[in-house]
Amino acid sequence: MSTKLILYGTKHSAPVRTVLLTLSALDIEFEFREVNLAAKEQLRTEFTKKNPQHTVPALEDGEHIIVDSHAIAGYLVRKYGKDDTLYPEDFYARAMVDQRMYYEATTLFATCLKQIIGPLFRDNITEVPKEKFEQIRQSYAVLEAFLVETPYMAGEHLTIADFSIVSTTSTLNFTFVPIDKEQWPRLADWLTRMEALPYYAEANGVGLKGFAEKVQSKMPKQYEKLWKKSICGDQKWRVKVM
Ligand SMILES: N[C@@H](CCC(=O)N[C@@H](CS)C(=O)NCC(=O)O)C(=O)O
Q1: How far apart are CA 173 and CA 181, in angstroms?
Q2: Residue 26 domain-assigned?
Q3: 64 and 98 assigned to the same domain
Q4: DSSP code for 63
Q5: Rounded to an integer, what distance in angstroms lies between the CA atom of residue 205 and that of residue 17?
Q6: End of a domain among 49, 80, 111?
Q7: How does pLDDT run across 83-92, given as a tens digit for each residue?
Q8: CB atoms closer than 10 angstroms to residue 82
């Protein structure tokens, strides 16, 4: 590779962690450039020139800039992957991966996570409305259904759909609605298998833990109450990545 890839982002961001997981799985060298969202660095002209959507992640590959975690993950596999396992060339297999990633983008991230995070960090609310937790539970039920026929989110093998979904689902699980292994056994098992990937802790766990600490500081009372009420009383999920 002639030019080193540059990834712009913060490890607290779930979409950024999707890209970190993909880069790790492909064993690609890259430079990480921190974009501090709290300081609104994503709105600075030097960044909006690269990404008018002012979102992270953004990837610089020589003269090209690619934005959106799903587009970046697919690009990385197609350009740098030794084979197509993580993002299959087969039309149907790829459609499955794409569908799962659209679900992540529109529901897990945009509807579940972003709608909680916005008010928490932008409007300084300290209590998340209960219906938001119900939306997360409903999305866990959909993920459980995705896993009925196959061990991974989009088929028999690990793909970038798993990276995308684990970045948000691990965040929702760790901060807002712990995954109850009685209610969603396939989802709990899948998450355990994802956590066992050799690069998981570094690529997803570190940023996830940092993000969870920020959430806890924003809603300390509700956070404790949520975890006390959790059916996963052993807090297995919570300590796993620490
Ligand atoms: N669909 C996008 C979502 C990216 C996104 O919204 N990132 C958030 C951080 S998690 C962000 O950069 N927010 C800053 C802003 O919108 O100004 C992706 O998957 O990359």
Answers
A1: 11
A2: yes
A3: no
A4: T
A5: 9
A6: 80
A7: 999 999 999 9
A8: 9
Q: Which residue among 28, 53, 80 closes a domain?
A: 80
The total number of structural domains in the chain stands at: 2
C-alpha of residue 164 to centroid of ligand 1, in Å:
13
Distance 49 CA to ligand 1 centre (A): 16
Residue-wise pLDDT for 161-191, tens only, equals 999 999 999 999 989 999 999 999 999 999 9
* 151 lies in the same domain as 47: no
pLDDT at 205 (0 to 100): 96
Domain region containing 40 = 5-80
Read off the CATH number of the domain in which 146 is found.
Answer: 1.20.1050.10
Rounded Cα distance, 97 and 102, in Å:
9
9 lines ligand 1 (CB under 6 A): no
Assess whether the C-beta atom of 55 lies below 6 angstroms from ligand 1.
Answer: yes
Estimate the share of the chain in helix, then strand, then coil, as percent rounded to the nearest 5: 60, 10, 35
Burial class (CB in 10 A: 0-12, 13-18, 19+), 11: buried
d(CA 126, CA 229): 18
Cα torsion angle, 214, 217, 218, 219, sign: positive
Residue 157 identity (one-letter amino acid): H
**27 C-beta neighbours (distance < 10 Å), count:** 9
- 36 and 10 Cβ atoms separated by less than 8 Å: yes
